[in-house]
C-alpha cells in the first residue's frame, strides 16, 4: 500500500478525510496533529517522519495532505495530490455532501494503491534490469582487464627475450670479430717468419759472391 491516508482542510478544520492504512495507528488523528504545523509557504512540500512521508499541497486557503509509505515515490504522491485537488474542487462546486466526498477520496486512494503499486513494481523491475546490465558490463570490464594484464605480461616476456637475444648476438659477433683478428694476426706472423727465413737463407750466398 502506497497512499495510507489523505485529508483536505481549511486551516485546521478538516473538510474531508479517509484513512486506508491497515495498521493500528489512527493516521487521521496524526494528520490533525500535523495540520497546525504545516507552514503556509511553498505550494507543495514533502517531509519524512516516523517511517511515513507527509506530503501537502497548498491551494489558496485549502491544504491537501497525504500520508504515504516511503516506497510511494515523490512523483506518484504529488500526482495523487493534484488529482485529489481537482476532483475535490469539482465536487465542492456541485455542493456534494461530506459522505460523497469521503467516498470519492476512498476510491481515489484505492485506485492509486492498485495502479501505483503496479508502477512501483515496474520501476523495481526496470531497476533490477539496469543493475543486471551494470553487473554484466562490470564483469566484461574486469575480464578485459585480466586480458590486458595477460597481454602486458606477454609483452614484458617478449621484451626480456629480445634483450637477451641482442646480448647473445653481440657476444657472438664479438667472438667472430676476435676470431677473424686472431687469424689475421697468425697469418701476418707466418708471413713475417717466412720473410725472415728467406732473408737468413739468402745472406750466405750474398757473402760468397762478395768474396
From TrEMBL:
Recorded superkingdom: Eukaryota
Residues of the V-SNARE coiled-coil homology domain: 119-179
Originating organism: Effrenium voratum
Positions of the Longin domain: 7-88
Keyword Transmembrane: yes
Membrane-crossing segments per the record: 185-203
Family affiliation: Belongs to the synaptobrevin family.
Entry-linked PROSITE patterns: LONGIN, SYNAPTOBREVIN, V_SNARE
GO cellular component: cytoplasm; endomembrane system; membrane
Coiled coil among keywords: yes
Gene3D superfamilies tied to this protein: 1.20.5.110, Longin domain
Protein name: Uncharacterized protein
Keywords: Coiled coil, Membrane, Protein transport, Transmembrane, Transmembrane helix, Transport
Classification lineage: Eukaryota, Sar, Alveolata, Dinophyceae, Suessiales
Amino acid at each position: 500500500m502506497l497512499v495510507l491516508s489523505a485529508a483536505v482542510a481549511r486551516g485546521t478544520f478538516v473538510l474531508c478525510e479517509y484513512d486506508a492504512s491497515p495498521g493500528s495507528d489512527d493516521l487521521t488523528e496524526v494528520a490533525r496533529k500535523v495540520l497546525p504545523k504545516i507552514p503556509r509557504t511553498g505550494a507543495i512540500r514533502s517531509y519524512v517522519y516516523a517511517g511515513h512521508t507527509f506530503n501537502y499541497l497548498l491551494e489558496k486557503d485549502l491544504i491537501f495532505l497525504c500520508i504515504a509509505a516511503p516506497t510511494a515515490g515523490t512523483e506518484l504522491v504529488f500526482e495523487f495530490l493534484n488529482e485529489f485537488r481537482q476532483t475535490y474542487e469539482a465536487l465542492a462546486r456541485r455542493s456534494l455532501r461530506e459522505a460523497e466526498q469521503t467516498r470519492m477520496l476512498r476510491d481515489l486512494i484505492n485506485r492509486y494503491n492498485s495502479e501505483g503499486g503496479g508502477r512501483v513494481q515496474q520501476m523495481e523491475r526496470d531497476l533490477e534490469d539496469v543493475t543486471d546490465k551494470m553487473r554484466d558490463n562490470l564483469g566484461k570490464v574486469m575480464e578485459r582487464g585480466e586480458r590486458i594484464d595477460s597481454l602486458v605480461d606477454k609483452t614484458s616476456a617478449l621484451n626480456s627475450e629480445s634483450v637477451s637475444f641482442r646480448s647473445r648476438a653481440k657476444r657472438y659477433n664479438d667472438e667472430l670479430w676476435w676470431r677473424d683478428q686472431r687469424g689475421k694476426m697468425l697469418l701476418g706472423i707466418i708471413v713475417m717468419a717466412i720473410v725472415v727465413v728467406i732473408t737468413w737463407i739468402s745472406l750466405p750466398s750474398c757473402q760468397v759472391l762478395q768474396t
